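I have been asked to look over a protein record a colleague put together. What it holds is a sequence and that sequence's fold in token form. Please read both lines and tell me whether the tokens look consistent with the sequence. I do not need a full report, just your reasoning and any doubts. This is what I was given:
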Amino acid sequence: MFHWNAELYMDDKVKRKPARYRRIVEGRKIAGTCYCITLPANEKNCMDVYSSRQFWFRYYRELDIEIIGLAADREGARQVICQMAQDIIRDFGEMNAESVKAYFCAEKEGEDR
């Protein structure tokens, strides 16, 4: 099951047609590929990056995944991750799994950062 963060980071291509890219992620049809940046599945990672094609497998569809970023291609995913890292370091002074979760949970709860 996917959960979309309220303040979803997007690259320039996705910003033009966000609904199209959400359908690619949520659908099971071969409609193209995009990249999803998610909260980490374990404590060792800061973020996880998945190709939308990985979500065709039942295993990934059954996980509780919160998507925090969406990019049309690999280069866009790198840019989105860099922007996230800059924002998190600006607010917390460091980049680690705890600060990433705190940053996106604060946005989810509507708190001021």
About this structure: The first strand starts at residue 2 and ends at 10.
